[in-house]
Structures are given as structure tokens and as C-alpha cells.
Amino acid sequence: MQEQKKIILLALITGVILMMAKFSAYFITASNFVLTDAAESIVNILASSFAFFSIYLAARPRDVNHPYGHGKVEFFSVFIEGGLISIAGLVIIFKSTYNIFYPHPISQLVTGAIIIGATGLVNGILGSYMINRGKTLRSITIEADGRHLLTDMVTSLGLVAGLLLIYFTKIFLLDSLLSIAVGLYICFTGYKLVRKSVSGLMDEADFEVVKDVLKILNEERRDEWIDLHNFRAQKYGHELHIDCHMTLPNYFDLNKVHEEVSLVDKIVNKKAMVKTEFFIHADPCLPKCCHYCHMPNCPIRSEAKTTDITWTMENITRNKKHFE
Predict the structure, then answer these.
(1) What averages of pLDDT result for each successive group of 10 residues across the chain (324 residues)?
(2) What is the DSSP letter of 68?
(3) Distance between CA 84 and CA 178 in Å, rounded?
(4) Closest by alpha carbon to 311, among 302, 321, 301?
(5) Which CATH number fits domain 2-201: 3.30.40.10, 1.20.1510.10, 1.10.3720.10, 3.40.140.10?
(6) Domain range list for the chain
(7) Quick one: how far is CA 98 from the chain centroid?
(8) What is the dihedral sign for C-alpha 191, 196, 198, 204?
(9) How far, in Å, CA of 246 to CA of 222, rounded?
């Protein structure tokens, strides 16, 4: 969590500096096109502030009112960030549309292009770093903030090209027209972030994370683990919670069952890139399980093993044993 806080704080400080540079470019040029980037930089700062708070809150230990911890606040942070981006895009579209009918003079476009280009380069470097660290740390907040900065970089590069086009063609109407195009792109980016946050709040399955866990379980699978089913995963900030049923030999005593269940938890938390909490319901095996059971010297086997069943997303998510 300390690393996540440092990354967000770095983004926040950088955002303030870049915002000042972008507004300087706007006051120099009086260009709506430059204003699009300057306005989005305000959103960057607000988003980083929300992200810093959400990571602080997500790090708090679980309590009576929040038995699964506070991790889901990260999804609210991403929702707010996406909403703010969308609002910024709409404001840009309205102002640029107004200036099509009521134009105003713009100047020093080359100077503005240089300033905006430099800020875009900084955002691109910082955004790529945050996305990589966000994926490693399994932090949706850091990754979302990084993607926002990459979007800002793309906007800045497009803005530089547009300013130079206006400078050389002297078609000043392009300033408002290009601003509207950028505003639409910003709104689309905001929508994608809102969509991602809603999917998390609605406990939509994160297939990428589940596939990583499933790969580990297949690689480390023991003969005693006859099958795995009714597998459900929920993401709470930086933690993953998994409920599932595991079929074990029906002659195991309680201590042996506990040992096998605990081993699953231990292996996944050692090898996975995300902290995982398991709630495993142990099911006793039935005679119909024998044809895919790997247990050697089983005292109750009713038929020989004839099938190997690899655990897949399809067969582990069903609420029934593999023979059913």
C-alpha cells in the first residue's frame, strides 16, 4: 500500500505542475484547442486526489461494518474519475461549438504547441509507468489513473499536430472543430472508466485474474483434489475473495480435509500476483467420481480411472461435480 500511495502522490504533484504549464499555454494562445488539454489537467488532479484517498481507505483493515474490507472504494474512485473526464469533455464540446459561431483571435500557436508537447511527453512516461505498476500491484485505481494520463498524452499529441496545422493553413475555424473531436474522445474515455467501475461494483467476473488462479491450481493439483466446482470470485480492491466447492475422498477425517483446504490457500497466495482469501466447501466424493479420480490405492474405488479432466472456466464455475 505504501508504494501505491507514493505512485499516486507522484501523479498528483506532476499533475499540478503540468496544469500550470498548460494554462500558461492557453493564456498565451487563447486557443480552445489548448484549453481542452488544460481543462483535462484539472480533472487529472481531482482524479489523483480521489485515487490517493481511495487507496488510503482501501488499506484500512476490515471491521464489523466492512467484513470484506474497504477495497471496493477503489471502484468508486474510478467511477468519479470517469465521470469527471466525461464532464470535462462535454464542457469542451459546448465551448468549442459556441466559438464556431462567435470566434475570437488566437496567436503564438507554435509556442503553445511546444509547451503542450512537452507536457504530453511527461504524461506518457508517467502513465505507462502507472499502468505497469497498477497491473503488478493489482490496483484498478493506479491502472485507471495511468490510462487517463496516456489518454492525456494522445490528446496532447493530437493537439500539437492540430495547432501546427492551424498555424500553417491559417484556417482558424479548425481550432473549434478539432476541439469538438477531442471532446468526443475524452467523453468516450470517461465512459470506459465508468463502465469498468460499474462492472466491479456489480461483482462482474474478472476473467484475467480467475484464469491466473486456475492456471496455478492446475499446475499444483494434487491427487486428493478430485474436482473443483461452484467457483466464484470477487475483487475487493487489492484483494481477491474466492468461494468454491472441492471434492475430496469421503474417507478423509476432518484434520485431513482442513489440511488439503489450507494447502490450496497457501499455494495460490504464494504464486498468484494478488492476495487471495478462500472459502472452500469440502464435498465428499461419490462412486460416480471414480472414473476421473487420481487417488492411488483408494480403498473404496468402484471403477478404474479412465478420464483426465482439466479444470477450465466452464467446469469449475458450474454448481455440480464434473460427472453431473
Answers:
(1) 78 88 91 81 74 69 68 73 82 86 86 91 91 79 79 82 89 86 84 78 66 90 94 75 93 95 91 83 94 92 91 89 80
(2) T
(3) 21
(4) 321
(5) 1.20.1510.10
(6) 2-201, 207-317
(7) 36
(8) positive
(9) 12
Cell of 230: 461452484
How far is residue 48's CA from residue 57's CA, in Å, rounded to a whole number?
14
CB 58 within 8 A of CB 74: yes
Residues 197 and 78 sit within 8 Å (Cβ to Cβ): yes
Burial tier of 316 (Cβ tally within 10 Å: 0-12, 13-18, 19+): buried
Distance CA 216, CA 242 (A): 14
Predicted model pTM: 0.61
- Cell 470484506, located at residue: 68
Sheet order of strands, 275-284 included: 227-236, 239-248, 275-284
Residue 300 has a CB neighbour count (10 Å cut-off) of 11
Contact at 8 Å (CB) between 89 and 183? Answer: yes
Residue type, 250: N
Domain 207-317 is in which class? alpha beta
Amino acid identity of residue 44, one-letter, is: N
